[in-house]
Amino acid sequence: MEQPIIIERQGRVVIVTLNRPAARNALNSEVMVAMANELAPLDRDPGVGCFVIRGSEKAFAAGADIKEMADKSFSQMYNEDFFAAWDRFASFRTPKIAAVSGYALGGGCELAMMCDMIFAADTAMFGQPEIKLGVIPGMGGSQRLTKLVGKAKAMDLILTGRMMDAQEAERCGLVARVIPAEKLIEETLKTAETIAGYGKAATTAAREAVDRALEGGLREGILFERRLFHALFATADQKEGMAAFVEKRAPAFKGE
Ligand code: CO8
């Protein structure tokens, strides 16, 4: 069976590659469990100084796996606390850089925002298209995006579902650097090595201190968002939005 993620170690840097290229790296439960469980011991390892999270050239990740979610009911989503294990990944203490090439949509954009910074290839496209599926962001997007880029841009992206390119993402503060696609991994690794070369207590403290500036109410915000996300699985429009995606047709929402 194909591994959901590939983990490679280069000195003090751990490179994590999302490995579902045919599904544009859609984030299913297997990917989530692997990210939370397999990276946890590396996060605690004093010999690991930085994570680099990357996807394929075409897609960092095109969101949560719509095919896995499409038929779930509200009670299933709520009782499973669907996708809660992503919180474990988000709370790792080792610095993490997202190297984004191609699409970072929905859960893919949210995964990138769980990292400490985003380096984007000039081909990168960011968006929160969940509204087109009859739902809302469910992996922290409504909270993190708003804190990172402000209300105006967050509303624009979340309410319309449009994509923004790497340049716009850099202008609005989502992205730390835009890099020519062919140099993305090389430059990201260089930066990861620099960070990994510093004392781990200092880099951990630095990221904790910076995050502190943003974190007022984040935990509550994410829980609130997840409950709303789960609740939308009680609507007919969620069933229609996701069925339409799977069947490759336009959705017909009825407001039910
Ligand atoms: N889920 C499942 N399968 C996907 C996904 C996805 N998110 N994205 C792409 N795929 C699949 C396609 O179905 C297709 O499969 P197949 O070959 O079997 O037909 C394959 O990947 C290739 O896709 P395309 O042919 O569409 O590739 P393109 O390069 O033409 O287009 C896009 C790429 C633009 C990325 C397009 O695939 C797309 O729009 N994808 C969906 C994007 C989206 O709506 N993302 C949001 C998902 S919802 C979400 O992320 C909510 C997160 C919160 C969950 C937390 C719960 C608590």
Automatic annotation (TrEMBL):
The Enzyme Commission number assigned here is 4.2.1.17
- Which transformation does this protein catalyse, written as a reaction? a 4-saturated-(3S)-3-hydroxyacyl-CoA = a (3E)-enoyl-CoA + H2O; a (3S)-3-hydroxyacyl-CoA = a (2E)-enoyl-CoA + H2O
Gene3D superfamilies hit by this protein = 2-enoyl-CoA Hydratase, Chain A, domain 1, Lyase 2-enoyl-coa Hydratase, Chain A, domain 2
Could you tell me which InterPro entries the record lists for this protein? ClpP/crotonase-like_dom_sf, Enoyl-CoA_hyd/isom_CS, Enoyl-CoA_hydra/iso, Enoyl-CoA_hydra_C
Q: Which GO terms describe its molecular function?
A: enoyl-CoA hydratase activity
GO BP: fatty acid beta-oxidation
Q: What does this protein do?
A: Could possibly oxidize fatty acids using specific components.
| Record Pfam families | ECH_1
Protein name as catalogued: enoyl-CoA hydratase
Keywords carried by this UniProt record: Fatty acid metabolism, Lipid metabolism, Lyase
Q: Which NCBIfam families match?
A: PRK05862.1
| Organism classification | Bacteria, Pseudomonadati, Pseudomonadota, Alphaproteobacteria, Hyphomicrobiales
State the family named in the UniProt similarity comment for this chain. Answer: Belongs to the enoyl-CoA hydratase/isomerase family.
Q: Which organism is it from?
A: Mycoplana dimorpha
